[in-house]
């Protein structure tokens, strides 16, 4: 066995150091405070659960991607959470089953998976989110999308793009106005993913009827016009979805870019009629995601829900976060009462332990001269 | 296999629900803000590491107590952190090895172990702490003890007791003024733990010389007098420890109870000359702990350090935390600009999604009538 430096961390797991760790905490606070101001109440699920409870609520998670261990108490398999939304759904369906609806819950914490994917090498991520349980209406979607935007803006994020999708649109069309043979559906999905018009048309004449959806992708207003034209051709079969998207987009400010990709499905394995991804200028890959879904109640019935999750790590690593604090060096035998007063005014103080210490080397901008902070 | 309700959690793992989850977040913020105001900068280590890196820095941790998994990338064993202090030590010794000393770092997050112990059935705990790296002097101890007290008081904790200990005192006495045969040391420790004077005296005449340490336990000032009498009998052999304890105790306010148990060792496996436990009125078991220790540098040498960790879960479960927010119901078609203004003033708003909703049932104390909040 080769010797590995004792400070080395496993791939995809990392330390966050000053000042980025503080920026991360600051960003999480701003998001959570915004969400709380809209009435979302905090829940804190445990970091591990029984594997079967967790996996049954995670449609897209494979057991081998989870960090698992045998519980010495129950002899059952435990798994670390790879996602918190499923845990919040479990809480809503069990311990908070009798709480009045709509139920607004928020959460924040680390999530971990054993295997990363090529797109995202990190195996631990920080997740922050809000779930509105008891409704998947357009009004619920309007609230969720706008709270997500407001939370990111409160954290200083600019250049936000929201990409809307209709995760179950193809299923709905295939079961209704644009019938497809069951064996054709996956091929149609794949070519819509690839935006390959030629290959889509080549599947079958029935599949070719889905061509307008490729054109219904792009900047929101132009894409909506093409989706509306398709709807007209279908005799208004997707009227409610069109109206829903229009209503959700309406209150969103001019400073947010809106796009539409009605057949986007990656990352929307459990969403139904509505989904959205959040992007920010300068960051490849989404920084958040949300939409409508169903929670499985204890009796097996379904309850509608709407929510979003943010994965702010890329933002933090890019330096989003509060301004640097003012650091004040306190020499030996300083005025302790004055130092306490200055801390209450927002100073961070660094007290000397020995006569030799140099406040500037400890990155202080000022030192306490009697009762006054003096710049170095 | 019996059917287990899908909402059930493994023993020792639990959900924290409103309003306790919010109280938990509030308490953590107050502690972290206090610690930051004294110049401690945040670090965020990952939730999992290579098992050997983690265990080598955790003297008292058995591998079977850890949640472990084989890393599919490196084929090495990963372990979830059961403690964050060791991770902060690793960071100080590696990535921050060149940062100026004293280095002040803070941290907060979940820690988990696979096996709980009888005293503490919970397997996941929240840990918050601060470490001062580069000194284990009396001045460092004064700072750490007082920052810990200030942080708890900022979070509203009253009735605080600090119990001081001298973790390596017996080793120091046995190697010097009160020699013991190597095979006697463990027996002397055990009888001192049990405070059993008869059994201690029965070990040997050498062991009987440790009897005054049993009397040197209890309320700080009385216990110190007995420890000082022993020190006088030993010709001042523990002068520096006596002076250290006196200096640490001196600035602590009258509202804090101080006790001394000079031979207490449980939970102080890696501390050396100084340790302390924190208790609060009405809570059985300690809510925090700290002391002096050594960090192993990359070259194998040792660096002195001083720190504390809090485990605030019992406080939170008892309801410590901020006051309940004011919740304001927003009927359909409310004045959105006014609602935003009220949120900025500290209201939490709950927006109606349908005409049927009842704000009182959603636990709102007020509703927005035009531009004015009205009580229900």
Structural commentary:
The structure is a homodimer of 376-residue chains. The termini of chain A are far apart. The longest helix of chain A has 18 residues, at 20-37. A nine-stranded mixed β-sheet of chain A has the order 1-5-6-12-11-10-7-9-8. In chain A, a hairpin with a 2-residue loop joins strand 15 and strand 16. The first copy, chain A, folds into two domains: 20-45 and 82-317, BirA Bifunctional Protein, domain 2 (2-Layer Sandwich), CATH 3.30.930; 327-375. Chain A is elongated, with a radius of gyration of 25 Å. With 376 residues, chain A is α+β, with helices and mostly antiparallel strands. In chain A, helix 1 (20-37) runs antiparallel to helix 4 (138-154) and helix 6 packs antiparallel against helix 7 (197-203). Chain A contains 13 helices and 16 strands.
Architecture blueprint of SSEs:
The structure is a homodimer of 376-residue chains.
Chain A: H1 20-37, E1 41-42, E2 48-50, H2 51-56, E3 68-70, E4 77-80, H3 85-93, E5 103-112, E6 124-133, H4 138-154, E7 160-165, H5 169-174, H6 182-194, H7 197-203, H8 205-208, H9 211-215, E8 218-219, H10 220-233, H11 239-249, E9 257-260, E10 271-280, E11 288-296, E12 302-310, H12 313-317, E13 327-330, H13 336-344, E14 348-351, E15 366-369, E16 372-375
Parallel strand pairs in A: 1-5, 7-9, 13-14, 13-15
Antiparallel strand pairs in A: 2-4, 3-4, 5-6, 6-12, 7-10, 8-9, 10-11, 11-12, 15-16
CATH class division of the largest domain in chain A: Alpha Beta
**What name does CATH use for the topology of the largest domain in chain A?**
BirA Bifunctional Protein, domain 2
User: Helical element count of chain A?
Assistant: 13
Oligomer: homodimer
